[in-house]
Design brief:
By secondary structure, this protein is α+β, with helices and mostly antiparallel strands. The protein has a domain at 8-46. It is 39% helix and 27% strand. It has three helices and five strands; from the N terminus they run H-H-E-E-E-E-E-H. A hairpin with a 6-residue loop joins strand 3 (64-67) and strand 4. Helix 1 packs across helix 2 (24-43).
């Protein structure tokens, strides 16, 4: 299995600056602001839709029973919110395209 890599803010800013002929500092500011807006939307319970690429929705998980792995004791796991990410058609095709 190939090693997984992740692009951080610095790598994204460098790539953005190259494509858009701006400074890395300007690119980083833009990216941080965009991510902050996305985070604020998710915290308000709003989903994010990027046509043909992905959808991020806030979903609520119900309370459920689970076993403590250390003791085996049955406990209630409280309800919580989490994110569900669905890949769009175009991104899915691009990810699975032959190389």
């Amino acid at each position: 299995m190939p090693k997984m890599t992740r692009a951080g803010i610095n790598e994204l800013a460098r790539a953005y600056a190259e494509r858009n002929e701006c400074t890395i500092v300007q690119a980083e500011t833009y990216i941080r602001n965009t991510l902050e807006i996305m985070r604020d939307s998710l915290l308000q319970g709003e989903g994010i839709f990027y046509m043909n690429n992905f959808i991020i929705d806030v979903v609520e998980r119900k309370e459920k029973r689970g076993a403590n792995p250390n003791t085996g004791e049955i406990e209630m796991i409280p309800a919580y919110k989490t994110l569900k990410i669905k890949t769009g058609k175009q991104l899915k095709q691009d990810l699975n395209a032959p190389k």
